[in-house]
Amino acid sequence: MVYSSTNTGLIEVWHNNKLLLRRKGPNTYAQDKHYPYFKWGIYKWGWSYTVRPPAVKNRVLFFSDVRVAGPSGNYQSVYPERLPENAVPVKSPKIKQ
């Protein structure tokens, strides 16, 4: 991501060395003093504020090899040199454009 409130903004999503999504243009508000930041986890508002208990009691979320580059970073700077020996390829998800 390149955060920007102008047309210089950029979002790219890569999976298994394949570009799935590329969007250019504004991706934050002009009045933001601090750009967005990542919070990793499961967001389930209803777990705390429901009249009755949720039907699903357990959820599992996995993250692996998350890499973030600085302002001068690019795809090459976050691409893993090799996959772990026990890595299992997964089918690329479909992303609505």
* CA gyration radius, whole angstroms: 18 Å
Beta content comes to 5-15%
Number of helices: 1
Global mean pLDDT: 76
Q: What's the total number of strands?
A: 2
Taken in chain order, the helices and strands follow as: EEH
Report the biggest beta sheet as strand number plus sense, adding barrel if it closes.
2 strands, antiparallel
Question: Span between N and C termini?
Answer: 17 Å
Q: Taking strands numbered 1, 2, ... along the chain, how are they ordered across the largest sheet?
A: 1-2
Q: What is the helix content? A: under 10%
Which regions are unreliable across 5 or more consecutive residues at pLDDT < 50? none
Shape: flat
Overall SS class: mainly beta
Molecular structure report:
By secondary structure, this protein is mainly β. Helix content is 4%, strand content 13%. It is built from one helix and two strands; from the N terminus they run ββα. It has one helix at 75-78, and strands at 10-15, 18-24. The chain has a two-stranded antiparallel sheet. A hairpin with a 2-residue loop joins strand 1 (10-15) and strand 2 (18-24). The radius of gyration is 18 Å and the shape is flat. 0% of the residues are buried. The mean pLDDT is 76.
